[in-house]
Specification:
The protein is an alpha/beta fold and 325 residues long. It is built from ten helices and eight strands.
């Protein structure tokens, strides 16, 4: 590994339009992998659901004495109003002996019902047998109520903040900009929904990829990579005319998919996999460009090309017939 690249791709990185576009594609592709969104629900009823921090530390996946309930509609949804649903929910809570903690966010017809011993179940002061008896009684009442479409018992799920150990992350103002929030690419909100590139392979078509770089290797996808200049499966860059190793492709790959570890910085889609297609280290033809644009299409989901014809204000050029196909 050259000293140039050991010093980390971050020092060369400037935020680009490509980052936002790549993350948009990652989001679209990764939606197939998202199983659900967890709501930070705040009850509307007076009073609070209390739990000590020490107890919360021990909670992993714990079922508690609260249930989300979907109420049946007797009229078309457009004719239903919030007041009528709130009244119906209150009647159901009286019938079942549960406390009505109101509508779940803006989800019409969905309400949260809580047993009076909720806090005890949360703090584990109820033994398993007591909890099972209460659960059986409550779910029997919910099963028999004609106004309930379905219900599901709630589970406390442990969630932790994402904190990166990568030393360069604090300088990646284009990912998170505390001083000028409007000047970053707003990607951290996607990360909160676990949209981090999992299951997506991105191919960087460039002058090579130093795939054994500590920030790239964990996410490297060899089966999607190829060297079109040397016609082999290793896309590693070679030395440029001034004796240093070509590094543009590695910088681009780092901006996209640098792993979250204790080295350098993180990529915009740090759980995605990254392929390298080495192309820009030799004569360029239309057929070579076309080959690069569809190399291993069965593996690569996105192709990143941070290059093009001379940008001198005079040259007008673009993909030719084969590349356009």
């Amino acid at each position: 590994m050259t000293k140039v690249l050991q010093s980390c791709f971050l020092q060369y990185c400037l935020p680009s339009r490509n980052q936002a576009l790549i993350m948009a594609y990652v989001w679209l592709l990764q939606m197939n992998y998202i199983k659900g969104v967890f709501l930070n629900y705040v009850p509307e009823q007076q009073g609070t659901l209390e739990v000590a921090e020490d107890d919360l530390e021990e909670i992993q996946e714990q079922e508690v004495l609260s249930w989300a309930v979907k109420i049946k509609l007797n009229t078309h949804r457009k004719e239903q109003n919030r007041t009528n649903m709130d009244e119906k929910a209150e009647l159901i809570s009286l019938d079942t002996g549960l406390l009505n903690y109101g509508q779940v966010g803006e989800l019409s017809e969905h309400y949260l019902f809580v047993h009076e011993n909720y806090n005890q179940s949360l703090n584990r002061s109820l033994d398993t047998e007591q909890t099972e008896v209460i659960r059986a009684d409550v779910e029997k009442a919910l099963d028999e109520h004609e106004e309930i479409m379905w219900y599901i018992q709630q589970t406390i799920r442990r969630r932790t903040k994402r904190e990166f150990r990568d030393p360069g992350y604090i300088r990646q103002w284009h990912l998170h900009n505390d001083k000028y929030p409007e000047m970053d690419i707003n990607v951290t909100k996607l990360w909160e929904y676990n949209i981090t590139g999992t299951g997506v392979v991105i191919a960087v078509i460039d002058d090579g990829l130093e795939w054994n770089n500590p920030d790239i290797e964990a996410n490297y996808c060899p089966e999607g990579s190829w060297d079109l200049n040397s016609n082999d499966g290793d896309p590693s860059p070679e030395s440029s005319d001034d004796g240093t190793k070509n590094r543009h492709g590695t910088r681009c790959a780092g901006e996209i998919a640098a792993a979250a570890n204790d080295f350098c910085a993180v990529g915009v889609a740090y759980n995605s996999r990254i392929s390298g297609v080495r192309l820009l280290d030799g004569p360029m033809t239309d057929s070579l460009e076309a080959t690069a644009f569809n190399k291993y299409m069965q593996i690569n989901d996105i192709y990143s090309c941070s290059w093009g014809p001379d940008d001198d204000g005079k040259t007008i050029d673009g993909p030719h017939p084969l590349a356009q196909v």
